[in-house]
Structures are given as C-alpha cells and as structure tokens.
Amino acid sequence: MSTQRSKFAISSIKSAGRLLIELSKGRVQIGNKNNDIQDVVTDVDIKISSFLSQKIQAAFPGELIYSEESPNVDLSSGTFWSIDPIDGTTCFARGIPHFAIVIAYVEKGSPQIGAIYNPITKELFSFEKK
Questions:
Q1: Closest C-alpha to 45, from 73, 23, 66
Q2: Torsion over CA of 105, 110, 113 and 116, rounded to 10 degrees?
Q3: What φ, ψ does residue 31 adopt, rounded to 5°?
C-alpha cells in the first residue's frame, strides 16, 4: 500500500510544482497569518493546498488531511496526510528560489511516505518506510 501512496505523492507533488510555477507568473497576493508579520502566507499557498487536498480526496476518499494552511483537523487517530504547500513562503514571496512543496502520509503516528519538491530546481527528495 505504501508504494501506491509513494507514487501518488511524487506524482501529485510534481503536478503541484507545475501549478505553483504557473501561478507565480501572475500577481502573487501576500499576507500574514494570525496578525503575525513573520508568518507569511500567499494566495499561492492556499491554491496549492487546495489542489493537493483535492487530489488526495479523489484518490483516498475520507482520509484526513492536515495542511499548514488549514490546521484545524483532529489528528488524534494518528493517521493522516500532511501538506506544507510552500515550505519557505517568505523566500517564495521575495522571489528567492529556496522553497519546496512537502507532502507526507502518517499512519498511527508513524511516517510512511514523504516527498519534498523544489519546482524551480526540480530537486525531489522522498522516502518510503519498508
């Protein structure tokens, strides 16, 4: 089962990377979370989070998804998908190409698969628990 999830995560994160590149060509709206000037969020963060959440729900209906952009999810079961749509939003917002998209699947508190992708450099790092 993990191999299926791993292939899904890698394919999805690359698709999200292509979308991020496309969205970054337009005007990016920058804001802050919780009135904290150091906690930057962009409209692209929200769109990538939504994109990945929709892909997960289509492939694995009913599974929990925790996203940095929508953190109010009960994770007490310990089984969920975790998304950081743009890890390094401050760099992204400033046009610095040091950011990545992150996705992972955690089962009963134990990470099973994960992927980190920088769509600018096309660097991909992933793992799968065997």
A1: 23
A2: 80
A3: -145, -165
Residue 77 near residue 87, CB atoms below 8 Å: no
Q: Helix and strand tally (H, E) in the chain?
A: 3, 7
**Size of the chain in residues:** 130
The CATH H-level (homologous superfamily) assignment of domain 2-128 is Fructose-1,6-Bisphosphatase, subunit A, domain 1 (3.30.540.10)
Q: For the segment 41-86, what is each residue's pLDDT rounded down to a tens digit?
A: 888 999 999 999 999 999 999 999 999 777 678 888 889 999 999 9
The pLDDT of residue 94 is: 86
Q: For residues 5 and 56, give the distance between their C-alpha atoms in angstroms, rounded to a whole number.
A: 10
Segment 99-121, tens digit of pLDDT: 999 999 999 999 999 999 999 99
Structure tokens at 19: 């979308």
Structure tokens, 29: 């709206």
Average pLDDT over residues 91-106: 92
